[in-house]
Specification:
The chain is built from three helices and ten strands; from the N terminus they run βαβαβββαβββββ. It is of the alpha/beta class. The protein is globular.
């Protein structure tokens, strides 16, 4: 897969309120892939439809009766990705457990939500990403946040947090 010029939208914790998500889609479309880290609260079909591309969505702690998977592993070109909401790994108190799990799985990228605070850090060879929340942000400034993952002509990944 040639990743040059590809754009992946990463969101989380929309909690059934997708007005801000619609704004993001209008702002960044087209995208080649959507990744949603959970707490969609029944809006997964509309979220997928609005994105209009390959989508990866996992269940969060508020997706009570959802049939969405709790975790997913997939590849983006040469990058192995582990996607989960994060609550099962205690991310509200720290990232140690989710990092340990990601390393044990041998992935390159772990993406999670739950904290409603954006995070983009490198731990050894592992990229650790949390897009924050589009509906109920908790970081300083409380601006709704999302991430874009993009690739240069050599397929090198670049991720950044964006705010509405």
């Amino acid at each position: 897969m040639n990743l040059a010029g590809k754009k992946i939208l990463i969101v989380s914790d929309t909690h059934g309120r997708i007005g801000n998500y619609k704004d993001v889609i209008r702002k960044v479309s087209p995208v080649d892939m959507l990744i949603h880290c959970g707490d969609v609260e029944g809006q997964e079909e509309e979220i997928k439809s609005l994105a209009g591309c390959e989508s990866h969505i996992v269940a969060g702690n508020n997706d009570y009766f959802s049939t969405l998977p709790r975790e997913e592993e997939f590849e983006i070109g040469p990058y192995k990705v582990f996607l989960t909401h994060g609550h099962s790994y205690g991310v509200s108190v720290g990232t140690e457990r989710i990092i340990e799990e990601a390393e044990s799985r041998g992935v390159d990228v772990v993406i999670f939500g739950h904290t409603h605070k954006p995070l983009n850090e490198k731990v050894g060879d592992l990229r650790v990403l949390n897009p924050g929340s589009l509906s109920y942000p908790r970081q300083e400034g409380r601006d709704p946040s999302f991430m874009l993952m993009e690739f240069d002509q050599n397929g090198k990944m670049f991720c950044g947090v964006s705010f509405l």
